[in-house]
Design goal:
Blueprint lengths: L28 H9 L8 H8 L9 E2 L10 H22 L3 H16 L6 E4 L2 H11 L8 E5 L4 H14 L2 E5 L7 H14 L3 E7 L11 H10 L3 E6 L10 H4 L3 E5 L11 E5 L32 H5 L1 H11 L1 H19 L5 E3 L12 E5 L5 H15 L1 E2 L1 E3 L7 E4 L7 H19 L1
Parallel strand pairs: 1-11, 3-4, 3-5, 5-6, 6-7
Antiparallel strand pairs: 2-8, 7-8, 9-10, 10-13, 12-13
Helix pairs in contact: 5-6, 7-8, 12-14
The protein binds pyridoxal-5'-phosphate.
Length: 434
């Protein structure tokens, strides 16, 4: 049914290269050498990407173009995770109370380096939700008579968290709809106008890459505009790390929530919160913290027992990603997106919801059939793609402009996968016109 690269065929002799916490290689030596030889960026080299795809066990049941929910672990990462699960399960406290603390500290240092942050500025969470709830719920530089800004493209539970946190602090919520079609200029103008219209704003939630449409907003510029006006920003970067070539200084934000189980391909259950050094006092300590006077970031997120095996496997995920390199990963995801979008952009009945300006999107992009804005119509469209063409996508709702279908390629997708999507969409549009 599926049109993808025959992944089994290209598997040929690639060993898994399992590593421990600090050592080992994410890829077998021959593959690593091939990767190192290939130029950057290398977005259209199907042979190279077939070798990467061969590192993933992708379902053959469908063409998987819904990879935004969480990311698949590459096979070497999965093998490492399975080893850590066995070890944590076997040694339990004997490991936890002796060596595990030091191992986890090492993981945290690696992640901090990867994010280009200080190790004291990040703390692990189980996901972006936990990180952002701690930041939104704990933010204390706002009170009665003041206001916080959210937008329609923000993630639903983060909007809800803002609404309840602000109600508790006696502050108001201002909600805007981001312009559609979006452009770099009109997104900046929308935030600037909201900031100017509401002088009592003290906080803004910014979603770097929207889970609804894939729109990437110019966070750094908006943060700067906000800062000039005494407005703090909490940035939802759940979809950023690994999808775009970015590190925390690029956002220049003081408070950020992140995921490592989406685009970094770590095991499920790994996220992180970032609080810029010097801003810790703006976030209340976690209610379960036993040292509320502490200035340590750990006092702001109290998770209790975590999936230690997942955390211990993060270095394997980072190694795998670093072997490909961030610019090459980001370029490939964009190239997959650009290919299907180019195949449908000229069709008057297909509305692609992110602009082609490379500053405004990454790999993820949504569309709808022009004029079809109901959840019902877009659910039926996603069902049609699956039932008739074997292509898996997902309905997204919550935009003020209406519902849509989101397409999220991953590193294991081929150009043939996205060509199949474009062909299916053109056919559906043609049939509507007939
Ligand atoms: C923009 C955005 N923010 C936050 C989240 C929450 O991430 P998680 O479910 O991993 O906590 C998601 C999940 O898809 C998201 O897309």
């Amino acid at each position: 049914m599926r049109s993808a690269i025959d992944r089994r065929r290209v598997l040929g002799g690639v060993a898994t290269g399992i590593g421990g916490v600090a050592g080992g290689g994410g890829l077998a030596a021959p593959l690593r050498a091939a990767v190192a030889r290939s130029p950057v960026p290398d977005a259209g080299d199907e042979q190279y990407w077939a070798r990467i795809a061969a590192q993933y066990d992708v379902t053959d049941d469908v063409t998987q173009l819904e990879n935004g929910n969480w990311g698949m672990m590459a096979r070497p990462v999965l093998a490492t995770y399975q080893e850590h699960v066995a070890r944590v399960n076997r040694d339990t406290s004997f490991y936890a109370r002796r060596g595990m603390g030091a191992d986890l500290r090492q993981v945290r240092e690696q992640v901090a380096r990867f994010l280009r942050a200080d190790v004291e500025e990040i703390v692990f969470t189980r996901n972006a939700t936990e990180a952002l709830k701690a930041l939104i719920g704990g933010y204390n530089r706002i009170g009665a008579g003041e206001a916080a800004l959210i937008a329609d493209l923000d993630y639903d539970s983060m909007q809800d968290a803002m609404v309840s946190a602000m109600a508790r602090r006696g502050a108001e919520i201002v909600r805007i709809a981001l312009p559609e079609p979006a452009s770099h200029a009109n997104i900046l103008a929308a935030y600037e106008a909201a900031f100017d219209r509401h002088p009592r704003l003290r906080l803004v939630l910014l979603t770097h890459i929207s889970h609804r449409t894939g729109l990437q907003i110019p966070v750094r510029d908006i943060v700067a505009m906000a800062r000039e006006r005494g407005i703090d920003a909490i940035v939802d970067a759940a979809h950023s790390l690994g999808q775009v070539d970015f590190a925390l200084p690029d956002l220049d934000a003081d408070f950020v929530g992140l995921n490592l189980h989406k685009w970094i391909g770590a095991p499920l259950g790994v996220g992180a919160a970032y609080i810029r050094r010097g801003r810790i006092a703006a976030i209340d300590p976690d209610i379960a913290d036993d040292d509320p006077g502490s200035g340590a970031i750990d006092s702001r997120v109290h998770t209790g027992t975590l999936d230690f095996a997942a955390l211990l496997s993060v270095p394997a995920a980072l190694r795998f990603q670093e072997t490909i390199t961030a610019p090459r990963r980001a370029a490939r995801l964009r190239a997959l997106r650009n290919r299907w979008v180019a195949g449908v952009r000229e069709d008057r009945d297909i509305e692609v919801l992110t602009p082609d300006d490379p500053r405004m999107h990454a790999g993820m992009t949504a569309f709808r059939m022009r004029g079809q804005t109901s959840a019902h119509e877009n659910r039926a469209l996603a069902a049609q793609l699956l039932d008739r063409f074997g292509i898996f996508t997902v309905l997204r709702t919550g935009l003020d402009s209406g519902a849509c279908v989101r397409v999220t390629p991953a590193l294991f997708n081929s150009m043939a996968d996205v060509d199949a999507l474009a062909g299916a969409l053109r056919q559906i549009a043609e049939e509507r016109r007939a």
